[in-house]
Specification:
The complex is a heterodimer of chains A (419) and B (609). Chain A is 33% helix and 16% strand. Chain A has 419 residues and is an alpha+beta fold. Chain B is 76% helix and 0% strand. Chain B has helices spanning 3-28, 31-44, 49-61, 65-78, 83-95, 99-112, 117-129, 133-147, 150-163, 167-180, 185-193, 201-216, 219-231, 235-249, 254-266, 269-282, 289-308, 330-342, 346-362, 367-378, 384-400, 404-416, 422-438, 442-454, 461-474, 478-492, 496-508, 515-529, 533-544, 553-567, 571-584, 591-602. The chains are: A alpha+beta (419), B mainly alpha (609).
Chain lengths: 419, 609
């Protein structure tokens, strides 16, 4: 950045902020509750408070216009903050904007509208995405199949998915849980929904859902998916013209040549993967990393990539954190195999020295998608029926922070891309 | 004659090898080769249902539905009554999406074998496999009506209703089964458990069960109902039903006695009281009568305790002795005395006397009388758990009577008793160190405190660390430290005036680093206990204001906020103080508590902390 440009920015900033003091919400180790800090910023945006996200500055901190209300909310929610004088605020802005620093100020404009894909009757405790939103007090709307198929996604900036199986194989829990009440009820719930919406099979209904979601992303929507919603989504897209579900899932046999008929040009993130067609094996394909490959859970950490905040603001936003090495966690889909990830996709977090990738991001049409492997960042091996994670005990969870990074970036004011 | 069996055996071996080969091809995904082999085998063994089924599976996997139909229809011609063949044929049609045709074929199978319960179950299984639950329910209901064998059909039927979330229907099926098979109660409860987690499922099940009971008056429904009410934690209703059943069957009351004990442990003293009263009135000659009487009085005592708690003062760190409501316990003491006199049961007598002693100690604050009772008890043979309880109370009395060496001896003994649980041992360790501190034996107190503070899982580890810091900082000034120890002892003995005087003097001495701050805080605590809020507020404001913060500033702010809020009802000032704490001490132990207090103030709810 030239000195002339720098001075212009300072003058512009001065005109808007010199008149008032600011609230600085640090997001480094000084923050007492990182997760609620996102909620404070989100809700301040909803109320029209001018808010800036300082990428790479003290863990990706926020600066908001000062108001007694925001200060009180910070106190009530236990979020650390520092009131700033005009002078202090300008110093921080200048520092962050200087060419020497890999930092950037991103002005947040409006609170995005968030939809979370949740089957009816499901509790937030079994879903890290809703758990994070509930804890941070970020407003979201639950949507499910009917809402998606009738076109409700147009109303939202974000669509968050978690523990979903878009292949119509009910999470491939058949071998272990076919006799369990919850499994049987879940299957009936989906079958009834398919019948209600005029589909002969659940897998056909899921195909319509994945295509609608893809259209939504293509038209500029933002998709965030975790756990099995990641690979099962792409598998469903690849299998858009072929039956891969066995008879216990959809009543008839899968296509014996299903693997050969997969169309990888349809997918967002993965290609050349091999399906796991055995209905008794709890896995969809070879995209997912197996526990035996992770070995000792004590060594399961992934590293977040460091992006140029000025040149790559979106991946930078998605990787803001107070630590760069984050403890791993398992899920039905734990991590992604690197050689099956499309070349166009950004790798945001991986286990160095391995082919195991935790966190990826890419563009599709005018929108973006972000996939995050694993089920619950603070419960290493979350099993069916386990108690919900109490986020009051994990206020500073770096793993959960990554989920919440995925609510703010549609709020960011669009800037001309630096070249 | 000898050759024929060999040929037959060889042939059998050959066919088995072919089957294995076909299965291997099938597993490897080469369905065409598997199909060819099965077709060969079936020519030799047209009667073999397993081969028919395997070949049919291959047809379905290859989506060759016409071949499947031809194959099965051929076999039906050979064996026109085999329900499995009809089941398979119907399934093929269901797979093709021709559900009407599937239903017709399954119905035909039943028509052919109307009286066979096996046919109903077999065909229902095929319908379930094809996810046609309504048809499966219809078939099982027909089977139940035709055979009148609820044990064969009801569990499957109930399960189908529950997974389709028709809880009322599921309950009806299980209640029907229970009518004729009361011994199935446990299995039925276990089946019901699978769905009772759903909202409204318990209510639907209770309503149905009540209806069955009203109509039949069968006592097995009372058992089921009390189980359902207990699941809802509606102990009172559960008890009513247990009593109803007990009266109806002339039972021995044991189940009600066990129920009373568990409800007492759950803290529902009204219901436990009612249960014990029923036993006392109805089982005068039973072996558990003394225990029931003891339980009844204990329930009454606990009910009275909960009425006596003064929630408006619960925020205070120390409370003045208040014996105003003690007269209400006179009847309970009398009841315990009568119980002890009426029974020659060592354990009952000891338990009753122990309770009287505890009431004298904690409610009447009559240390002499309580001490006399406990000393008498010491001479009796006691259960280990009562010994531990007795010694804790005796040590407390010794402290109140300023007999510290006796208290020290008792705590040392408590540490050694194997029956003491870890929390009691932990208390004994800390109190032993405190007594050494109170008596001025600071070096030995430090040694004992070190042991406690090194075990961070010990409940008293924090207290031990805090006391160690005070002793270590002030040990060069043993005179003032001894004064502080004296004030601390007086506060433990509820002599708040005496303690306040000592702490005030220490607090006013500016030369006593650390000790004057903690003394100021202690002084404020004593003044609050004595309802002298203005002097307490001055001391707490001094501690928490000013540029230089001390280690007690956050603690002082928290107590100050509570004093404004609860003693003076000054919400605004309370809010200001808690906000100040949040701003100034983000890492304080009182941070979360202050946030909670702010939430309480903001919601306009004044709650007991």
């Amino acid at each position: 950045m030239t000195m002339k440009k720098f001075i212009v920015i300072i003058i512009l900033l001065a005109s808007s902020i010199f008149a008032q003091t600011k609230i600085f919400i640090p997001m480094d180790l000084k923050q007492s509750d990182h997760l609620k800090a996102y909620g404070i910023t989100f809700n301040a945006l909803k109320e029209g408070v001018v808010s800036d996200w300082l990428l790479n500055y003290r863990g990706g901190s926020f600066i908001l216009d000062y108001s007694q209300k925001v200060a009180l909310q910070c106190r009530l929610k236990g979020v650390s903050f520092e009131p700033l004088s005009n002078e202090q605020a300008v110093q921080i802005y200048s520092f962050v904007q200087s060419d020497e620093q890999n930092m950037e100020v991103v002005r947040l404009e409006k609170a995005p509208k968030i939809a979370v894909y949740v089957p009816p009757g499901f509790q937030p405790w079994d879903d890290a995405v809703t758990l994070a939103m509930e804890y941070a007090e970020v407003e979201y709307t639950k949507v499910w199949i009917e809402e998606i198929l009738r076109g409700d996604l147009d109303k939202y900036d974000w669509l968050h998915l978690h523990h979903e199986d878009f292949t119509g194989q009910y999470g491939k829990f058949f071998a272990s849980f076919q006799g369990a009440q919850w499994y049987q009820e879940q299957q009936i719930l989906y079958e009834n929904e398919a019948q209600k919406l005029g589909y002969k099979k659940v897998s056909e209904m899921e195909r319509a859902v994945v295509l609608t979601i893809r259209d939504y992303v293509g038209a500029g929507g933002f998709l965030f998916a975790m756990c099995s919603a990641t690979d099962s989504y792409d598998i469903a897209l690849a299998a858009i013209n072929v039956d891969i579900a066995d008879q216990m899932f959809d009543g008839d046999a899968p296509d014996p040549k299903a693997q050969e008929k997969l169309d990888f040009s349809q997918t967002l993130a993965f290609d050349n993967f091999t399906l796991e067609m055995n209905p008794y094996v709890y896995e969809y394909s070879d995209i997912d990393i197996q526990p035996v490959e992770i070995q000792n859970q004590l060594n399961d950490y992934f590293t977040l990539f460091d992006f140029s905040a000025k040149y790559d603001p979106v991946p930078s936003m998605l990787t803001q954190n107070h630590v760069s090495v984050v403890r791993g966690f398992m899920g039905q889909t734990t991590m992604f195999r690197k050689n099956l990830i499309k070349k166009s996709v950004y790798i945001l977090g991986e286990r160095p020295g391995t082919d195991q990738v935790k966190y990826i991001h890419g563009n599709f049409g005018r929108g973006t998608f972000t996939f995050y492997g694993g089920h619950d960042p603070e419960d290493y091996q979350h099993a069916v029926g386990d108690n919900p994670t109490d986020l009051n005990l994990f206020k500073n969870s770096p793993g959960y922070r990554l989920i919440l990074n995925n609510i703010l970036f549609p709020a960011a004011k669009k800037k001309k891309q630096k070249t | 004659m000898l050759i024929r069996p060999d040929v037959s055996a060889q042939n059998e071996l050959l066919i088995n090898n072919k089957i294995s080969l076909a299965k291997r091809y099938e597993q490897s995904g080469d369905l065409e080769k598997a199909k060819k082999i099965y077709n060969d085998i079936i020519k030799e063994q047209p009667w073999n249902f397993e081969i028919v089924k395997s070949l049919n599976d291959i047809f379905l996997k290859l989506k060759e539905y016409d071949n499947s139909i031809i194959l099965i229809e051929e076999k039906i011609k050979l064996n026109p009554t085999d329900p499995n063949l009809y089941g398979l044929l119907g399934s093929t049609y269901a797979t093709m999406g021709e559900n009407q045709k599937a239903t017709e074929i399954w119905d035909k199978a039943i028509e052919i074998n109307k009286s066979s319960m096996v046919t109903y179950r077999v065909i229902a299984d095929y319908a379930i496999q094809k996810r046609d639950f309504n048809k499966a329910i219809e078939i099982l209901k027909k089977g139940l009506d035709a055979t009148n064998e609820p044990m064969i059909f009801s569990y499957d039927l109930g399960n189908l209703y529950s997974i389709t979330m028709e809880f009322e229907e599921a309950a009806k099926v299980y209640c029907d089964l229970l009518f004729s098979n009361p011994e199935q109660l446990a299995s039925i409860q276990s089946r019901m458990n699978r769905y009772l987690t759903h909202a409204n499922s318990v209510k639907a099940t209770i309503d149905v069960t009540l209806d069955y009971y009203e109509k039949s008056r069968k006592t097995q429904y009372l058992d089921l109902l009390s189980y359902l009410y207990m699941r809802e934690q509606n102990y009172s209703k559960a008890l009513d039903l247990m009593i109803q059943k007990d009266k109806a069957l002339d039972n021995n009351g044991i189940s009600i006695f066990n129920f009373a004990k568990s409800v007492f442990a759950e803290g529902d003293f009204n219901t436990s009281s009612k249960a014990y009263m029923f036993l006392i009135n109805n089982y005068k000659n039973s072996s558990f009568l003394p225990d029931a009487e003891l339980g009844y009085i204990r329930s009454a005592e606990e009910k009275l305790n909960s009425e006596q708690i003064d929630s408006s003062n619960a925020w205070k760190p120390f409370l003045e002795n208040d014996t105003a409501g003690s007269y209400k316990y006179s009847k309970i003491i009398k009841d315990y005395e009568n119980l002890a006199e009426n029974y020659f049961n060592d354990n009952i007598i000891a338990s009753a006397k122990m309770r009287i002693g505890i009431i004298k100690l904690t409610i009447f604050k009559d240390y002499n009388e309580a001490g006399r009772i406990f000393s008498d008890l010491q001479k009796s043979r006691l259960a280990p758990i009562l010994i531990v309880q007795l010694m804790q109370n005796l040590a407390q009395i010794s402290i109140q009577k300023n007999n510290l060496s006796e208290a020290q001896t008792i705590y040392n003994r408590l540490k050694e008793i194997p029956a003491s649980d870890p929390s009691v041992k932990s208390l004994a360790n800390f109190m032993s160190a405190k007594i050494l501190f109170w008596t001025g034996n600071f070096p030995k107190a430090l040694i004992e405190l070190k042991d406690i503070s090194q075990n961070l899982s010990d409940n008293f580890a924090n207290d031990a660390i805090e006391l160690s810091i005070i002793i270590n900082t002030m040990k060069q000034d043993s005179l003032n430290l001894l004064n502080y120890a004296k004030g601390d002892l007086l506060s433990a003995q509820n002599n708040f005036n005496g303690a306040s005087e000592i702490f005030k003097k220490l607090a006013d001495n500016k030369n006593l680093i650390l000790l004057n701050d903690i003394s100021k805080y202690k002084f404020a605590q004593m003044e609050i206990a004595l309802n002298k809020y203005n002097s307490a507020i001055s001391a707490l404001e001094e501690l928490s204001s000013g540029e230089i913060k001390n280690v007690y500033s956050d603690k002082a702010l928290y107590l100050l906020g509570n004093t404004y809020l609860y003693a003076l009802n000054n919400y605004e000032k309370g809010q200001e103080v808690f906000q100040n704490l949040l701003d100034t001490f983000p890492n304080s132990l009182y941070f979360d508590k202050s946030r909670q207090m702010l939430n309480i103030i903001n919601k306009g709810i004044k709650q007991t902390i």
